[in-house]
Structures are given as C-alpha cells and as structure tokens.
Amino acid sequence: MLGPIVTATDAGEGLALASGAPFGQMTPMDRFSFTLHGTDGSARTGLISTPNGEVRTPAFMPVGTAGTVKAMLPENVRETGADIVLGNTYHLMLRPGAERIARLGGLHRFMNWNRPILTDSGGFQVMSLADLRKLTEEGVTFRSHIDGSRHHLTPERSMEIQRLLGADIVMAFDECPALPADEARVAQSMRLSMRWAERSRAAFGDRPGHALFGIQQGGVTRELREESAAALTRIGFDGYAVGGLAVGEGQEAMFGVLDHACDMLPVDRPRYLMGVGKPDDIVGAVKRGIDMMDCVLPSRSGRTGQAWTRAGQVNLKNARHADDPRPLDETCTCPACRSYSRAYLHHVFRAGEMISGMLLTWHNLHYFQELMQGMRAAIAEGRFADWERGFHARRTEGDIPPL
After folding, report:
1. Contact predicate 73/362, CB 8 Å
2. 120 a catalytic residue
3. Are 116 and 50 in contact (CB under 8 A)?
4. Which domains does the chain have, with CATH numbers?
5. Per-run averaged pLDDT (10 residues), the chain, 403 residues
6. Angle (nearest 5°) at CA 204 between 292 and 234
7. Residues near 326 by Cβ (< 8 Å), separated by ≥ 6?
8. What does the alpha-carbon distance between residue 180 and residue 248 come to, in Å, rounded to a whole number?
9. Which of 10, 30, 120, 329 is catalytic?
10. pLDDT value of position 5
C-alpha cells in the first residue's frame, strides 16, 4: 500500500451541514478534498471528503434519478455500502422543480439522504431528446417528455439548478453525441462542451465545500481527448469525468479510450466514468485508473427479475428456479439471499409483487458495493491482478446447476 500519495482540496472556508448532523444544524465546514491512498498498476484507491461525509474510492454511485433510488429506502441504500448517490438534474428540474426543492431545504433533506450527492448536468438526458430539442451556442431548448412544456438549459442555468438542489459534487454542462458519429461531429461537439465548461466554471463561482467536475469529451479519438483534457485542465476543476462513453461504442472501444484518457487527467483529482456499467465494465475501468462510476443497471435489473452475482447474471424469471430452495447466492449477506429462496424470488416476480423489485434491487446494489470493496482492498494490498483473475474465473464458471 502506498499513501497518502497526493491530496487535493478546495480553498473554501465557511459553514455547512456536517456528515451525520441533524438537518439544519450548522457546524464548521470541512473542505472538499481528494486523497489518493494507494495504487496498483493504474488502479487507484483513495478518499473523497465532503461536508456531508466521505466517499471511498473506487466508488459506485447508485442512481437516484428523481430523488429516490427506485424500490429502496435511503437508509437501505446506505446499508448496501453506498457512500454517495447520484441525482438527475434534468428530471428534478422538470418535476418537482429545483426552486421547490430549495424551498423545502435542498435535495439532501428532501430525499432524506444526509450523505454526499452528485448531480449530473442534464446534458446527457437532453442529448437523448434529439427529436424534441434545438441546440445552439447558447444552450439547448427542449420540450419536456412529461407534458411538452418548453425549457431552456444553458451552462448558467444548469449551475443554478444544481446549486438549488444543494449537490456536493456538481457536473459541468456538456453536450454528448451518441456513438457512432463521424469525427467532425464529435470534434464540433467536444469544442462546444469545452466552451460550455468555461461558462460552467464561471457560473459555479466560489462555493466552499462544494466541487465542480469538468467532463472530457472526444469520442474514441485520442487527439480529441487530448485536446479536451488540455482545455479542462487549463480551466481548472475539482475533479474530472470521462464522458461520451457507454453510448453505443462497445466495451472494447471504451477500454481503448480509457487506456489513454485517464493519464491525460490530473493525478491528484478524482476521475469519474459516467454511466458505467456492468460489473466487468466497472472492473476494467478501475483497472485503467477510474475512481467513480454510476449506472441505473442494479436497480433497473432488479425490477425486471435480473440478479447480478459473483457467477454473472441470474434470471429469476426462468422456470428452473420455481422449486429451488437454495439462496440466490449462498455467500451473500443481503436480505434477499439471507432470508429468501430462489423459489420465492421467482414466485413474487411472476406474481408481480412489489417485494420482488425491492429484494432484487437490494441484492444488486449490495453486490455492486461488495465488488467495489473487494477492489479497494485488493488495490491497497497490491494484489489487484490476482483479484481480477479470480473475478473473471468465477464468472466463467457460471451459475449453480439446476436441482
């Protein structure tokens, strides 16, 4: 184990809500900081500190799109091992509205989560509304997918919304083209995102205890990624995301980008891969130097009868589980595995009972957090390569055979 190697902090001083303190109680504020505790190859382990608590890295962030991780109570999300959750700027600005959330005490209080929150900028969701949007240098005008109402989102407005929400980590506003796309389109989009990054930095201002992350773009082209990283580093951010991946390019291409993209970013700042992913995507990203990830997969899979385990993906919809008294994973300590059989999990899914999504989501989030803890320990102990081989070997064996 190496450490501490480098530490980065913001320069703010003031008052903020302390980790674990009652809502509304103000205490002396800790600064946002990132300490890199150790490395093993390119893999890294460290600690992000915020006024609302610490985040162990590498970290997986459950997605709380509309102020909730679907099918889970906030305290149960914490019990899975999650240190931080992600909130969605686009969805929260449309419903219930950022100003309303601010009047009600901010997103932490509103959703009863008194630990760190990262909010995305809204750019990715707006990208997905290609038929309902108009893109200009100023920003994006789009129609709500909920009621068709017209909205205008700019870097300045995105920063304002995320300030109203009270996020600990705020993302710069960017434009993310779907892949595949021709290089000229990707270059045009990246350069627009860099201009928006500069405007985001200016609009974010001086917010002690809060962090702003810039987002590297450039598709799968190394030269464009280098140009983007240089622009972001010149502007200066508290952390850096690798954006524009997991949007249709495939795992091989994604890993090809990560093989060089991480090294373009400052070593003393957190590196966040947005929207990833499956367990093998996560392991491959950490291997290449990523510190943070998020994805809807654990909760979405749980609601559709899919479980993620050490053996890979298990489909509880299959009839093979109908008479199986064994747990989903005998080594797992989550409630679904500790107290229920595969037969029961199969039954409640087929019967359309809400407990199915609750139990399987809890299991999936527990598994993803267990995965992160395993990697943190392996990196700290200098045995990440052996851990990774064991991870892939167990998945190759597959699920236990039917009875």
Report:
1. no
2. yes
3. yes
4. 58-295 (3.20.20.105), 302-397 (no CATH)
5. 64 33 44 97 98 98 97 98 97 97 98 98 75 87 90 96 98 88 94 98 97 97 98 98 93 97 98 97 98 98 98 98 98 98 98 98 98 98 98 97 95
6. 70
7. 341, 342, 400, 403
8. 7
9. 120
10. 62
CA torsion angle 230 235 239 240 (round to 10): -40
Catalytic residue among 83, 174, 238, 294: 294
Give the 3-state DSSP-derived string for the chain, with helices as H, strands as E and coil as C.
CCCCCEEEECCCCCEEECCCCCCCCEEECCCCEEEEEEEECCEEEEEEEECCEEEEECEEEEEECCCCCCCCCHHHHHHCCCCCEEECHHHHHHCCCHHHHHHCCCHHHHCCCCCCEEECCCHHHHHCCHHHEEECCCCEEEECCCCCCEEEECHHHHHHHHHHHCCCEEECCCCCCCCCCCHHHHHHHHHHHHHHHHHHHHHHCCCCCCEEEEEECCCCCHHHHHHHHHHHHHHCCCEEEECCCCCCCCHHHHHHHHHHHHHHCCCCCCEEECCCCCHHHHHHHHHCCCCEEEECHHHHHHHCCEEEECCEEEECCCHHHCCCCCCCCCCCCCHHHHHCCHHHHHHHHHCCCHHHHHHHHHHHHHHHHHHHHHHHHHHHCCCHHHHHHHHHHHHHHCCCCCC
R_g of the chain computed on alpha carbons: 21
What angle, 0 to 180 degrees and rounded to 10, lies between the N-to-C axes of helices 354-380 and 279-287?
20
Q: Is the dihedral of CA 119, 122, 123, 129 positive or negative?
A: positive
**Is the CA virtual torsion 21, 272, 231, 33 positive or negative?**
positive
Whether 263 is catalytic is no
Structure tokens at 308: 């993620």
Task: Give the closest residue to 48 by CA, choosing from 261, 376, 291.
Answer: 291
Spatial CB neighbours of 210, under 8 Å, sequence gap ≥ 6 = 10, 12, 32, 167, 168, 169, 170
Place of tokens 């300045």: 156
Residue in this structure with the two tokens 């006024």, named with its chain if needed: 51
For residue 88, how many C-alpha atoms fall within 13 Å in the half-sphere facing its CB?
A: 21
